Amino acid sequence: MVDPVGINISNSVKLIAQGTMYLLLLLLSCLAASKADYDCLCSMAAEKKVHLEPSEASDEIGYMYEFDCKQVLTLYSPVDGWKEVAFLHQVGYVKEDADTSVQLCNGDPPTADIVGTAPSIIATGELTTEMMTTEPATFPTTTQPTTVTSTPQPTTVPRTQQPSAATTLMTAVQSCPLAVQQEAKANNSILIVNNVENKCYEFVQTKHTWSTSESNCNRNGGHLVTVRTENENKELYEYVKAYGGSVWLGLSDKQDENNFTWVSGEANSYTNWRPGHHNIFIHGSEDCVCMLSSSGQWEDLNCGNTYASICEYGSVPDNSGQGLGNPSLNSDGNIHMCPTSAIMGERLHPENILGQYGDSCYELINGSRVTWASAESTCKRNGGHLAHIRNVDEQNYILDFLKRHASNLATWIGLSDSHSETHFEWTSGEPVTYTNWMPGYNGTHHSSEDCVVLLPNNTGKWDEVYCGSHGGFFSTSTERHQQLCQYKTVTHSSSILIG
User: 182 falls in which pLDDT band (50, 70, 90)?
Assistant: First the structure.
């Protein structure tokens, strides 16, 4: 006979065990909710730089050391080869390599690194208001305001907005003050004249603190630049982007926290803040504003940081008599019609030489001999292609240009039949309407000779040669020549003073 008391005790034990298990699971779930694991980037290197932007050219905000781990963020759109991390209450970027790895870290992110909720700046006419948001923005696009549009995405050939005919370079008669020109020459600064606003900008590449930069501008009667409109910001950004580093602007809230004013005393009618710039943890020590080279957006940072800067002066009439009129066909042309990236490139790399003819800008990349594919890649990266020649006039201009600057060196042009033997194509996609082959050339060269050089030492004739390595698997023979890039001309509302 079964003992009913024993059955009741057994059932009670089961119920107690089930209840205990339930309470234990509930406790564990509560602990898990309060101590959630998170993705983190860990460094195995003795020292790993943390950058302000996803670029090795950008400024450093600190270092990760061996076995350091930082929370991985996803506030902005990802950039290949970089991880976005929380670093001392800031958004930082770490370059991924063999010494970094993404792992799962236990518990909560360190409070010393947590990035606070960021406000967005919404500009409406002359009134700027601050609104809190919890939605992550897409880097590097700004929050869409009613009167201020997002930062433009780079195109294959950087362009500024087209001004009217009355404000183009052909009528530019303004220049920078003589004292500014003399100092810029001594310091290797770049001078830019805005012919619409009658302003002279000095692009100072030497890095200084915000106060030192402002004092240097004051010495010649100027100040750190004031940015008044979206178009002005876009135009200045083209130069900043080509330079590749962030620059100080004349905006700060040093006198009154969160009340940003221009050193020029002008009204603050336009802003282009980076989403998340207002850091609630360290904002009190970030009083000075720079323009970021990655996006053209603005960030307030510690005034003691060192960056390049842009000084602003009033322009003066150009009495040199040279002007910027139509160039002679046997000269290098009006290189002010070249894209901003090419003009800045020439100033930063003086060995390169620019020329302009018709609707084309040419850049001779001096000092290196490369394969045809490498040459085309360099031109494409800068927004163009290897030169294409459409008629005898362009051929004559290019031949004279090369002979003036490169003696008799063979030069890659953008013609090849690498896709289909004897079917030649320009890398620009233009139709082949003109050729200038060597005497006796009949298009039946060896099938591995697919790329074309122009030979200044042979009256500019063209020859088909190997595109790179040749002579078999173990051969070290490589066809390498200088390169001539070609870009579309553009119309700027500003001009760079050359020389």
Answer: confident
pLDDT digits (tens, 9 = 90+) for 441-466: 776 655 678 899 999 999 999 999 98
Rounded to whole angstroms, how far apart are CA atoms 86 and 116?
Answer: 10
What lies within 8 Å, CB to CB, of 177 at 6+ separation is: 200, 220, 221, 313, 314, 315, 316
Looking at 3.40.309.10, 2.30.30.30, 2.30.30.40, 3.30.1130.10, the CATH number of the domain 38-105 comes to 2.30.30.40
Report residue 95 as tokens: 């370059």
48 in Cβ contact with 42 (< 8 Å): no
Contacts of residue 296, defined as CB under 8 A and 6 or more positions apart, other chains included, come to 140, 151, 152, 233, 234, 236, 237, 240, 241, 272
Q: What is the 3-state secondary structure (H, E, C) of 395-455?
A: HHHHHHHHHHHHCCCCEEEEEECCCCCCCCEECCCCCCCCCCECCCCCCCCCCCCCEEEEE
- DSSP, collapsed to helix, strand or coil, labels residue 19 as helix
Tell me, what amino acid is at 344? Answer: M
Amino acid at 153: Q
- Measure CA 130 to chain center: 28
What average pLDDT does this structure show over 296-322?
83
Place of tokens 């003691």: 304
| Single pTM value for the model | 0.47
- 314: closest CA among 186, 188, 201? 201
Longest dimension (CA), the chain: 124
